[in-house]
């Protein structure tokens, strides 16, 4: 039996799609939604260290769960929102069914 190959066979897999960039937080891309540009960053499970509240389903995203962070291109840092990946992909079909009061915590 020959030894296992430890290198990839499929050529160069490091090429990124157009509009994507790699930084220390993860893979970042720009998407168009509701006529505005949004910056979307994929967060790996080991990088997710806090609890967040998904605006798509109004459920909690616990630490260690991979998810998406999205914000408007010209928005403020406080406007970033953490979404489940499925909720972000279905954002046109989903909205929070439960409306929280102004005094409710915003994870």
UniProtKB/TrEMBL annotation:
Residues 9-29 have a biased composition (Basic and acidic residues). This is ATP/GTP-binding protein. Residues 1-29 are annotated as: Disordered.
